[in-house]
Amino acid sequence: MLKKLLEHPLTRGLDLDDPQTTQLRRRIIRSKPFLRSIYDDWYDWLASIDDGLSVDGWALELGSGAGWLDEVLPRLITSDVFECDGLKLVADARRLPVPDASLRAIYMVDVLHHIPVAKAFLYEAARCVPVGGVIAMIEPWNSTWGRWVYQHLHHEPFRPDAEDWSFPGTGPLSGANGALPWIMFERDRERFETEHAGWRLRTVQPFMPMRYLVSGGVSMRALMPGWSTGLWRGVERLTRSQHYRLGMFAKVVLERVAD
Q1: pTM exceeds 0.85 for this model
Q2: How many whole angstroms separate alpha carbon 127 and alpha carbon 256?
Q3: Pairing label, strands 249-256, 134-140
Q4: Axis crossing angle, helix 19-31 with helix 33-51, rounded to the nearest 10
Q5: Which residue has the higher pLDDT, 38 or 6?
Q6: What digits encode the pLDDT tens for the residues 166-179?
Q7: Rounded to an integer, what distance in angstroms lies between the CA atom of residue 47 and that of residue 176?
Q8: Angle (deg, nearest 10), helices 33-51 and 229-238
C-alpha cells in the first residue's frame, strides 16, 4: 500500500523494458531538483575518478539512456542496450564492440545489477580496459537499512541470498538483482579476487542512506523540496560513520592491474 501511495504518476503501469520508459525517466530526473542534484553529485565523483587516471583513450558509459554524464566528462561514449535519443552506441555489456585495451574507463550508475551474467561483463571489460584503467560505478547496497527499503519500497528484485552472480535475463531493466554488487564485492569478495585477479577492488564505500529515498528517486513522488538538498547532505555527513550499516548505495572502483 505504501509503495502504491508513493508511486510517481508518470511511471505507473509502464513497461520497464520499453526504451520510451527510459527516456521518460530522463525527463523525470531533470524535472526533480532534489533528484537532479544527486545525479550531479554522482557525476562529480565519477569525474574525480577520471581526473586521476594515468591512461589515455575513450571512456565508455553503460546505461546512459536516462542520464547526462556526457555533459560532464570529455571523450565519453554513451551507450545502452537499446536505442535512446543521443546515444553513441547500442551494446550489450558482455559483448562490447570496441578494440582491445581502447578504453581508459567504464562508468556505470545503477547498471551492474541489471547484467544477467556479471562475470561475463568483467571478462569483457578486462579485454577493453588496459592496466591502469578502471571500472567505476554507483550501485545499490545491502546494508541493514538499504535492504529494508529495496525489499519493501522498490520495484526491482533484491536477493542477497542468491547463490550465484547471475539471474534470468527477463529484460534489460526488469531483469535484476539489486543485491548483486554487495554479493560480488562484499559477501563473495574472496571469489572475486580469485576469479578476476586482473582487477583490484580499490574502493567500496557505502553511502547515501537518506537523500535518494526522500528525493523520491525516479519511480516515486518527491518527499522533500529541492531547497532542502543541502540540509539532507549535511545530515548524511554527520552520520557518515554509520553508512556501512545504513547506506543505500555504494561507490565501487575496480582498477585494472594485470593482463
Answers
A1: yes
A2: 10
A3: antiparallel
A4: 100
A5: 38
A6: 998 788 888 999 99
A7: 27
A8: 50
The phi and psi torsions of 83 (rounded to 5 degrees) equal -65, 130
E-strand stretches of the chain: 58-62, 76-80, 89-90, 103-109, 134-140, 199-207, 249-256
Q: How far apart are CA 33 and CA 13, in angstroms?
A: 24
DSSP 8-state class, residue 82:
S
Contact yes or no for 55/42 (Cβ under 8 A)? no
Phi, psi dihedrals of residue 28, rounded to the nearest 5°: -65, -45
- What's phi and psi for 137, nearest 5 deg? -150, 155
Residue 193 has pLDDT above 60, yes or no: yes
Positive or negative CA dihedral for 181, 183, 186, 189? negative
- Cα dihedral across residues 67, 70, 76, 77: positive or negative: positive
**Rounded CA separation 221/178 (Å):** 21
Number of Cα atoms under 13 Å in the Cβ half of residue 257? 11
Task: Please state, in angstroms and rounded to a whole number, the distance separating the CA atoms of residues 201 and 192.
Answer: 9
First to last CA, the chain: 51
Quote the CA–CA distance of 256 and 134 in Å, as a whole number. 6
Q: Where are the beta strands (DSSP E) in 36-119?
A: 58-62, 76-80, 89-90, 103-109
Q: Per the structure block, which three cell numbers stand in for 3? A: 509503495
Q: Please give the Cα distance from 95 to 127 (Å, whole number).
A: 10
Nine cell digits for residue 58: 575513450
